[in-house]
Amino acid sequence: MSEIDIQHINKRFGKVEALKDINLTVEAGEVFGLVGPDGAGKSTLFNILTTLLLPDSGSATILGMDIINDYLQIRRSIGYLPGVFSLYPDLSVQENLDFFAAMYKSSIRDNMNIIKPIWDQLLPFKDRPAGKLSGGMKQKLALCCALIHKPSLLFLDEPTTGVDPVSRREFWDILKDIQHKGVTVVVSTPYMDEATRCDRIALIQNGNIIEINTPNNIIANFKGHLCTMPTSDIFGLMKIMDRFELKCNYYPYGEHFHIVFYDDIKKALPAFEQFLEKNGRVHGEISSIQPNIEDCFIELIQMKL
Predict the structure, then answer these.
(1) 242 and 214 in a common domain
(2) Which of 112, 143, 239, 261 is spaced 20 to 30 A from 84 at the CA atom?
(3) Whole domain around residue 289: which residue ranges?
(4) 8 Å CB contact between 20 and 208
(5) What element of type H or E holds 212?
(6) What is the pTM assigned to this prediction?
(7) Running DSSP on this structure, what letter comes out for residue 125?
(8) What pLDDT does 52 receive?
């Protein structure tokens, strides 16, 4: 039996369809990522799965329990780190952890094996008010509190948003350690680079799941031939791209312009270079590159349109 089994979940807020016929499963021991931009529906789905919100239709089971009929048992069996820091800012690190341990009739000592790598980093700050911690330390404390009762399933809603890059990497290393201790981890993120740290991912956009697969398989299934070039006039170039006759997809990527060709690259690339010259566009060297998850996400969205 899957740890999570979602069947045809739908949710609407007024005229906005937040979730549209969501179907997915999460297996025991996975780090499963729900990956998509802000407003895609990630938090809405998490709120339903953690029994904080009712779906309009559809069903889901968590650890074999129904999200509606068995919500109290589910709440005792899972860990949940919401997207907004929700601990008591005036209580110290130690006091917050003691409070959550008491709520679950547990103790730090009883569960030190699962929280020790995180607790060791928090120990020097154990008397500091939680509200005065850095963003990364706040998330580590929240993670400790979510794990204090040894849940077999852990939900983390955008846990690294607003956290510096070093702390983000450290946080994902901690998640892998938690996975190795037998906890199934379900994490949502808007950061495409974090998708590669997951065993499987679901790409979500506008309430729709557009792909579920391993990160490697999603990249391997990229359909086109991706090229990049530096240019100082990205948006000027985008305005004229509808004149280019060959089938392609294109988008800005930092200070570079990414273009995906779907014709033979030996034909498409010279044609594109001639197109740039004809339109007087100055650019750097055009290079072929391997797609990443973000490139794949953009391609999959374009294919759905």
Answers:
(1) no
(2) 112
(3) 222-304
(4) yes
(5) strand 208-213
(6) 0.91
(7) G
(8) 96
Side chain identity, residue 166 = V
DSSP result, 43-73: HHHHHHHTTSS--SEEEEEETTEETTTTHHH
Give pLDDT tens digits for 209-227: 999 999 999 999 999 999 9
DSSP 161: T
CA distance 274 to 115: 59
Per-residue buried b or exposed e for 206-224, using 16+ beta carbons within 10 Å of the residue's own CB: bbbbbbbeebeebbeebeb
- Same domain for 227 and 167: no
Answer whether 143's CB lies under 8 Å from 174's CB: yes
pLDDT in tens, 62-104: 999 999 999 999 999 999 999 888 899 999 999 999 999 888 8
Residues 36 and 62 in one domain: yes
DSSP state of 232: S
Residue 281's identity, in one-letter code, is R
Whole-number percent of the chain with pLDDT over 90: 78
* CATH number of the domain that residue 207 is part of: 3.40.50.300
Residues 201 and 299 in one domain: no
Q: Give the total number of structural domains in the chain.
A: 2
Q: What three-state secondary structure class fits 257?
A: strand
Do residues 245 and 147 share a domain? no
Residue count of the chain: 305
- Say whether both 133 and 236 belong to one domain: no
If we measure between CA atoms, which residue out of 36, 70, 28 comes closest to residue 51?
A: 70
